[in-house]
Write a structure and sequence with these properties.
Layout: H1 15-28, H2 40-47, H3 51-63, E1 67-70, E2 74-77, H4 84-106, H5 109-123, H6 132-148, H7 153-173, H8 180-185, H9 187-195, H10 199-220
Antiparallel strand pairs: 1-2
Length: 221
């Protein structure tokens, strides 16, 4: 399974953090289907960790609205509800432009190198050869690199959570979307604006991207 996280570079991750990221991305990409039961033992075995890291990861994922626990019934992946799209978009339309502008102002040389690497991946996008799963992983990678470049952990955490929820909705309707590769490729000019240190242009491109995402989903429903 491919990894999509671009979070902390060059540091040793705890078992709980590794478990959290792995389970999170399975939920986001709908590898664990909405409504599916969550089995701690199976997850621990598939990840090669004990039950304690998995239990710690699940606590975080419940807070992030990716799983839900019912008394006497157990824990399940949350359903994907299209009515959530308007609420999620409302948050992202305000915060994505802020994140893009702050990334343009604050990106370090390391951030710019990471963004340049993602930009190269975007340039190699071939909608005829890349499947939907690969495109969505690339989309997540772009967003997480931009959020990391804000150097605001509160903004980053908030946007990662909302982007994860938006991606689950995208995954649900991806078969009906007409120009998915084009949507992902839109990130190219945004990354260029951030690398160039142009906060106004970056903010506008980020706003356009979020509005375009919501519009594309609604057209696909």
């Amino acid at each position: 399974m491919q990894h999509v996280a671009t979070e902390p570079r060059g540091e040793e991750l705890s078992l709980a953090e590794r478990a959290y990221r792995a389970i999170r991305d399975r939920l986001v990409m709908l590898e664990i289907r909405p409504g599916a039961p969550i089995n701690e033992d199976q997850l621990a075995q598939s990840l090669g960790v004990g039950r304690t890291p998995v239990r710690e990861a699940l606590k975080r994922l419940q807070y992030e609205r990716l799983i839900t626990t019912y008394p006497r019934r157990g824990t399940f992946a949350t359903d994907v509800n299209i009515t959530d799209l308007a609420h999620i978009s409302e948050v992202r339309q305000e915060l994505e432009p802020l994140a893009a502008a702050q990334a343009a102002r604050r990106a370090t040389a390391t951030d710019r190198a990471a963004l340049t690497a993602v930009r190269r991946d975007l340039e190699s996008v071939d909608s005829r050869r890349r499947d939907a799963d690969e495109l969505m992983r690339l989309d997540l990678q772009v967003h997480r690199a931009i959020y990391a470049a804000t150097h605001n952990p509160y903004l980053e955490d908030t946007l990662v959570r909302h982007d994860n929820l938006a991606t689950r909705i995208w995954c649900l309707f991806v078969e009906r979307m007409s120009d998915m590769a084009g949507h992902v490729e839109e990130h190219g000019p945004l990354i260029e604006a951030i690398i160039a240190g142009d906060p106004d242009k970056a903010a506008q491109l980020a706003r356009d991207h979020v509005e375009g995402f919501e519009r594309a989903i609604r057209e696909a429903i």
